[in-house]
Each structure stands twice: as C-alpha cells, then as structure tokens.
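Risk mitigation, structural track. In case the binding assays with iron/sulfur cluster fail to produce interpretable data, a predicted complex structure has been prepared as a fallback.
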Amino acid sequence: MDKKALQSLILSEKKQRDTVILAHTYQAPEIIDIADFAGDSYALSVEAQKYDAKRIIVCGVRFMAETVKILSPEKTVILPVSQASCPMADNITPQQVIDFKEKHPDYVAVAYVNTTAQVKAQVDVCVTSSSVIKIVKGLEQDKILFLPDGNLGAYVAKHVPEKEIVIWDGCCPVHDGVTAQDVIDAKAKHPNAVVAVHPECKPEVVEIADMVGSTSEIIKYAKAHEGEVIIGTERGVVDYLEEKNPQGKYIQLRADKLTCKDMKITRLQDVYQSVIGISGEKIEMDEDLRIAAKRSIDNMLKYGG
Ligand code: 13P
Ligand code: SF4
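Fallback model:
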C-alpha cells in the first residue's frame, strides 16, 4: 500500500475507533501529517488532557507515552513501538535519586521530563526545555539537583546564577554529539545564516548559537526569520519546517549526528497497526507509582504554564 492510501486508512480507522494520535515533532513527516497534534514534549503533555477520545496513540518515545498515561489514567495509551525509549531517560535509576536525596535532604530535585515514571515519582518537579528556566527561577528553594541532562543543567545554571545547582552527569547522546567545530564549519559554508540550537547541546555549542530553545521555540524562530537558519536539533525539525513553511531556508546541522534512532523507529505502518489494535504497547502503570509521578508533573504544569 502506498503512503497516501495508508494515511487515509489511518485517518478513517482512528475516527471509527475513538482514537487520537499525538506526535512529537521529531517523528517522520508522514506520521506528523496524520497526527491530531504535533509538538514538543511540554505541548504533548498539556494537549493530551484536552481530548475526550478513549484511546491515545503517542508517536514518540516511552517517557512521552508514560507522561500521557500519568495525566490521563482513564484512557488507553498506546506506544506504537515498545523499543522506542530515550537512552538519556534510561540512564538514571530511581534509587540514584533516593540516595542523593538521603545524603542531601535540603535539595529540591528537578527532573527534565525525559525521565522514566519511576524517576518522576522520586523528584519534586519536572521541567521541559521550554519551561525549565521559568520553573527553576520560581522555586522557593535555592539548592537544586538537576537531572538527568548535564547540558540542559549547565544552560539552567547559566540563566539562574542565583541558585546553587548540582548537575547530574548525563546527556542526550544525539544532541551531545554536536561540537562547536560543527557549528563553525556550517557558518563558514553559510556565512549569512543564523544558528538555532537545542539546549541539550554542549555548552560550547550553545555559547556560539544565535538562538537557543526547545523544539517548538526553534520552529517559531525559524519560521519568523527571513534568511537562512542552521538548525541544531534532531533532523525531524527541518523536515517539519520544510513541509509547513516551504518558503523558508533551513540548513540541517550534522544530519548524521542529529538523528535520534529511537524517535525514528516508529513507522507509519506501526501507527496503522496500533490504530487497528494488532500491535503497539498499552502503557500499564501501578496506581501508586502514577500518583507519585503525577505530583512532579502537576508541579511542572502549575509552575510552567
Ligand atoms: P523538547 O521536545 O522538549 O524540545 O525535547 C527534545 C527531545 O529531545 C525530546 O526527546
Ligand atoms: Fe532522548 Fe535525545 Fe532521542 Fe530526545 S533526541 S529521545 S533526548 S536520545
């Protein structure tokens, strides 16, 4: 079946089956096309609560589907491909957070939303790349443990110097692969271009960029910019911009490095099979875990909104 026919089938089946499809902007363009909503991690978690449908298919990675389940427990939440996981999220255990808090009871634990439900259950507040500065600034406490992204942590520490921030030693292997030399080389090839990067990139990359922001913020900036924009985040963002705003000029920074295999593992066929119920993983969560994890997400929505 060709792409268009499969897309039409998904659209009609999802309607009949009271299902909505949410997609992170890093997903393949043919998936974004049939999604009811596409956005960054923060927007997905907010948007998921607005739908009445009894089933939500989350095209992204596991922590995104878990976040939707935490906020909408009455709904059936499906992750189309079980292996779609975030290596950064999987690199920290809840026990490590418990151990830190036991040793440092005066610290408030702030977690990037790219964490497992078990880790979310141990922290005080979650943040996304678009809400992190506002949330950390607004916290009453001055001593903060920021996890699990060290690059995002360094970005926050720079913007909120008045707080004492202990930064976890973790990273997104996709964004962390970009070097300052990659940016210098791209600028030499495109001297009139501006550079927009995600704060998951290394501090020395962020330092020489013209703009730093979450996926949605980069999209907004690139759409508004008249000339060429070098995009320093996962390549799905350039695909998205080229489709939604074809008059713009976008240059992908290091496409070889900025491809997240976990975000790209979901294919249109997987989405179709999830819609008709023959594959995909139904997210199940123990109620005590869900309630504990929800506290930190509720705090994110409360302070970051
Ligand atoms: P945002 O959606 O918060 O920009 O995060 C990027 C990312 O790496 C998601 O996995
Ligand atoms: Fe995780 Fe990075 Fe992939 Fe996002 S881009 S899912 S943070 S590995």
